[in-house]
Amino acid sequence: MANLIASEYQSQDDKKVYIDDAQRKSLLNSIANIIPNESAAAENEFNTQEDLRKRFYPRQDHRFIFEADRFLILGQKGSGKTALFSVLAHPEYAKEVANYLEVSVELIEGTEWITGLKNSSEFPSKVNFQSVEDSSTTIRNYWRCLAARSILKNYESIQNVREEIKKLKNCSINELKEFAKDNSLAALIEDFFAFLQHTLERENKRIILVYDALDILISKEVRGTIISTLISLWFEYFNRYQNIRAKIFLREDIFKKEVGEGLDDKVKLRNYTTNLTWNYDSLLAMVWKRMAENSTDMAQLLETVLSHIGFTLSIPDEKIRYVSREDIKLNKELLKIIVGEKMGKGNKVYSYNWIRNHLADNQGTIVPRSILALFSYAAKREINQCGSKVDENTLISPKNFELVMKEVSEDSVSELLEEYGEYKNILKEIKNFQKTFPVCEDDLKSALVECGVESGKVKTTIDHLIEIGVLKSHQRKSSEPIRYHIPDIYLSGMGLTRQWSRYLKIQVSSIK
To answer: Is the pLDDT of residue 429 over 50?
Structure first.
């Protein structure tokens, strides 16, 4: 490390870490590779236990995944639901995380996490779900059969199972819907669950079925009814089978807009629901972990920087490995060595603020995929310019962070299109009718009509775009017209530009 870092610090106020040019590309690669397969949206980044150890950032508030009474986990696309699902899908690693989070031994000992649904050939596809007979009884039986099938395949210690139920263990996905039509089999499955509950209670064990990819595997035309039935089933089972529980990972917008039919009281679910959110400092801590995991040199660099302000890049044990503190001072110090304290010389915005303001939607929400993409894309751009002059005290120039925002924005718009296909015309075509934002209300309404929104649905559309973080209204005085703006995370990805009005200059000056 003598060639990598000269740890000569002139004074408490003028600390410098000099980076050896010979090591710069290696360090940049450790940043570029914080996301796999060229995409922050890669669905396979937590496929193995080793992937989880390198990429999963265990937060203290993740303790809820081990709590039996929290069976519904909601979050927007890209918020990390699949990462948490993958933790529970790898029982050995789940226990390591539980130990790290100091979860009560009673919550993890004797617990078997079993996959109830995921995006793989072992489980039903869109076609299978689409073909399930459209009746609440059959759909309910389908979920029962699928749950029993998963338990039989993965919990082999259960004995004295009736032959009719044993058939489910090795049945094909296509056979499931035929079993679901047999109401007599549904009654036998209830007997099987009751017998299993009695056995688990006697042995002081517990089974938790974990469901993911509901938005991917169930088409929009039928998913409201099918997902509502799944939630209703486990809500009913909650008090009946204390040792057989579920964890259902679901997109928050689907729960709000589509789930409801078949649920007696949706409000009661709040007591059993957790919303998955991130704060800005925890997102940066996740970035540092991934960088450190990719390179010993990078881990030592980060450790060296932090040691001079009394912090450390924590290594709790060889299984969990690097876990940085969620601390604003620590994050600002590490950003200095990555991009610099400010986004350039002179009266530029602080990099800590710039990243947050450019990645947040209009609800102030930043998802992990966006911040990972920003650092990765900027590092790759810096690598491609390795011959150009760079600041000897930083790894990536602020200009490259600014330039890759368009890519990050395009990724985010693509994610929106996957979630809200009904707004495809708006997200792709509004630039043809209103190129710059902020915009007055009347101009926005006219542009939406040009994009194909019925005049009677314009107000509802605006309200929903506000709800999902795409639009934000502003009115400084009641005498002035309402104006709407679009956050940077979506703006350039929609082919739009910012109109630097007096309104925006006021906003910018207030966040420097």
So the answer is: yes
Identity of the residue numbered 208? I
Predicted pLDDT at 270 = 85
Q: State the Cα torsion 420-424-427-428 to the nearest 10°.
A: 150
Rounded to an integer, the average pLDDT of 104-120 is 87
Q: Mean pLDDT of all residues in the chain? A: 87
Cβ–Cβ < 8 Å for 458, 449: yes
d(CA 142, CA 136): 10
Q: What is the pLDDT of residue 12?
A: 41
- Give the orientation angle of helix 296-307 with respect to helix 280-294, to 10 degrees: 130
pLDDT tops 50 at residue 185: yes
- One-letter amino acid at 346 equals G
**3-class DSSP state of 414:** helix
The two most distant CA atoms of the chain are separated, in Å, by 81
- Please return the burial class of 500, using the count of CB atoms within 10 Å of its CB with bins 0-12, 13-18 and 19+: exposed
| Nearest to 511, CA basis, from 411, 364, 408 | 364
> How many angstroms separate the Cα of 14 from the Cα of each of 10, 17, 159, 334, 395?
6, 10, 70, 15, 18
Report CA-CA distances (Å) from 344 to 347, 351, 355, 357. 8, 9, 13, 16
Residue-wise over 218-255: b if at least 16 C-beta within 10 A, else e? beeebbbbbbbbbbbbbbebbeebebbbbbbbbbbbbb
Q: Residue 265 and residue 275: Cα distance in Å, rounded?
A: 19
Model pLDDT for residues 265-309, shown as the tens digit of each residue: 777 888 899 999 999 999 999 999 999 999 999 999 999 999 888
- Whole-number Å distance between alpha carbons of 496 and 498: 7
Question: What are the tokens at 93?
Answer: 């690693």
User: What would the pLDDT profile of 198-215 be if each residue is shown by its tens digit?
Assistant: 999 999 999 999 999 999
The model carries a pTM of: 0.87
Neighbours of 63 (CB within 10 A): 17
Look-up of token digits 């925890």: 282
User: For the residues 450-464, what does the mean pLDDT come to?
Assistant: 95
pLDDT exceeds cutoff 80 at 494: yes
Sheet holding 472-474, edge to edge: 439-440, 483-485, 472-474
Q: Encoding tokens for residue 52?
A: 């989880």
Higher-confidence residue: 512 or 177?
Answer: 177
The residue assigned the tokens 């496929």 is: 47
Q: Name the pairing type of β-strands 483-485 and 439-440.
A: antiparallel
| Interatomic CA distance for residues 445 and 427, integer angstroms | 14
The single-letter DSSP state of residue 436 is E
Measured CA distances, 301 to 4, 264, 293, 316 (Å): 8, 56, 12, 18
Is residue 489 within 8 Å of 412, Cβ to Cβ? yes
The whole-number average pLDDT for the span 176-201 is 93
